[in-house]
Amino acid sequence: MTMIPQSVAYAGLAGLQPQYGLYTAFIGSFTYVFFGSVKEVSIGPTSLMALLTFSYVVGRPVEYVILLTFLAGCIELAMGLFKLGFLVDFMSPCLTSGFTSATSIIIIISQLKGFLGISIKNNSTFPALQEVLSKVQEIKVGDTLLGVTCVVFLMGFKQLGKIKSSNLTTKKLLWLLSISKNALTVFVSSVVACLWFNYEGSVPFKLTGIVPRGLPDIGLPATHAEFNNSTSGFTDMVSSLGSGIIVVPLVAVLANVAIAKAYSSEAVVDASQEMISLGLANILGSFVKAMPSCGAFTRSSVASSSGVRSPLQGLYSVSVEMSIVIGAIFNVLVLLKAWSRPGILIEKRTSEKGLEYLYIKPELGLFYPAADYLTEKVKKHHNKNPTFPIALDCYGFIKIDYSAAKSLETLAKTYNKKEVGIVFVNVNSKVLCTLMAQGEDNIVSLCQSSYEVNANTFSVRDMENPDEKPLIDSINGRKFSEDIRDIRKGSLCDLE
């Protein structure tokens, strides 16, 4: 909600169609995720880059803009690869502060024409201001009223974040409203424009218009363009861009470093890496018809206030739909990892009566994705201690599925046949019912807690005649066969 309207506006500031701003926002955010070093920086179209671009390509076709993006990216990348980041050390805090302040002034003056709804021809800062002042009589009430309302709205919501409240919920709500001021302003303005247009058929202020759908064709920047009824070659285009090929990348690097120093929580900023990431963002951006980009002060401020933890925040600037999909995918992957490869505590223990045994405790429940993994872990560690009986702590098992129950049954059969013995500790009624549903009455032995594991618990039954020698369970001193009868009667399974 912040990136999209700014991208559309800055494209117009550069004299381009709105879609070019969106292309820039997409590729810049995506590239910085992988190569950026400052988590607060938000790469994309900016008013400063838009103004510089416009001053060098005014009146020329879009191919000039794309070529400028490519060449600026090449210079930035070369500066980073040659480790010229040390040049930033010669930029004093006064220079950075002055650059930031000058940028703010330039942005304000450049936005006056749109704010007041008038048209001007001058592109330079102070001549543009003079022309605006000379056309005061042409100010449109609708545009001005909307602009003033938005400014008041933004300033008012900014102050909400400074209100102190002892109530935690109120404090968080005020902070959320304050940090969402840009998105809320765009949303409310869009709703007003939509409703006004639907009822009146027109609006008293200028609209962006229709933005083409879809992604751009991917390809190398054009090396020729039609201009003034003739075809301009690569050398002609480069000559026309002039000093912009040097000025644009230098200003972009300075902007990134200024943002990094202003918002970064890191003590040292890797300027060379910032040059590399910025260069790659512009080079790749030229392949999708993007305009020159760099870090944005406004969006970086929002990111910093939101408490971002890594450059991955750039992914959420791509689109709302994409961020939801990516977030859902990551959550699913985290869950799959946790359930398929749970942490398993495995250690040697000694009971109060001196019995040494292998204690195994999975951290999470047991379902089919982790069943084979648990079996492999048990076998691997038991092979190192083949004479040790096994105590499998099921405290974390809320319930198990059929596949997990079969795996536990297989473990019990395997180690009981080897006359080693395996006991299941802390088994709740739901898990016990699922185990008993496998149809093997005397194949599983239980123990109420790991503190009650003793020699009797691991008494070995005759697998050929299990009914003649049932395993003694330490739950209230009963035989395990008594538990089986309780389950058959429903005294345990009915607890579900």
From TrEMBL:
Bilayer disposition of the protein: Multi-pass membrane protein
Matches recorded under PROSITE patterns: SLC26A (PS01130)
Gene3D superfamilies membership: STAS domain
Compartment annotation: Membrane
Gene Ontology CC: membrane
Protein name, UniProt field: STAS domain-containing protein
Keyword vocabulary terms for this entry: Membrane, Transmembrane, Transmembrane helix
Residue ranges occupied by any STAS domain in the UniProt entry: 366-449
Organism: Dendroctonus ponderosae (Mountain pine beetle)
Residue span, SLC26A/SulP transporter domain: 3-324
InterPro entries in alphabetical order: S04_transporter_CS, SLC26A/SulP_dom, SLC26A/SulP_fam, STAS_dom, STAS_dom_sf
Main location: membrane
Pfam families: STAS, Sulfate_transp
GO molecular function, one term: secondary active sulfate transmembrane transporter activity
